[in-house]
Predict the 3D structure of the following.
Amino acid sequence: MAQTTDSGQSTNSLIGLVGSVTGSKTNSQDVCCTTLRALRQTIRQTGYQFMDTSNSATEVRFFNIGEATAFSEAGSDGAAEMAVLLTWIHSYLMANNADLGRTGAVCPFTKQAAKLDTVRVAVSLADASRERDAFLLARRAFGELNDIPSRKGMEHFRTVIIGFPGFAGEAGVAALKRIQRAHRTYSLARGRMIGLMHVSSEDQGLWNRDFRPLRSPIPILAVRHMVEQDAPFAALHPALMLAYLARFPFKGARRLASHWRGT
């Protein structure tokens, strides 16, 4: 991946790519410089002192959809919470929604991933006082993602979804937001995306600004691969746009241009 430094050929190439999309060298350089400053600030803000792994985060089990369904019906600790997570995945995330503003499932990516058996789910029973455990579990999710078996050429459909029912409420969601921010640079550097869903999310939909697509009955962190189709998301966030163009320099630039033209 290209290095995000203030000087050097890699950054200049990205500035040129953004310029070819925006049609303005000055604007593209401003965007990239702002992005680099934001990335450095993020790095400074991610000083979690939580890097050991000898804790309960390693005890959380990850399941494929079939295994998770069986677990949710077993009546053991976490079964009811897993059932809530699976119901949301099936009835919302992989289903059509009239308020979405386009046809198809809310998340077509997850629907296809489920068919390919490349979805892994987990539920943490930690409460909001155990932010350290939640951070480590989120970090572990990146390794779990890489370990998901997949057919050649289908690796980008791998995704990990973790429910945090004990983090419901303002303090818990704030803790998960800190964890998400702390992983932003880590995630982008690896071509990954980390998203946060919760019951009071105010993030707007891409096709219907009145729709709130990231609402879920329990707080959730999800990790997946960055894909070419992420252009609409990249267009909203300078740091993501830089990482997106580094990963998909030509096809990504075309997709961004198409998005900005509204085609």
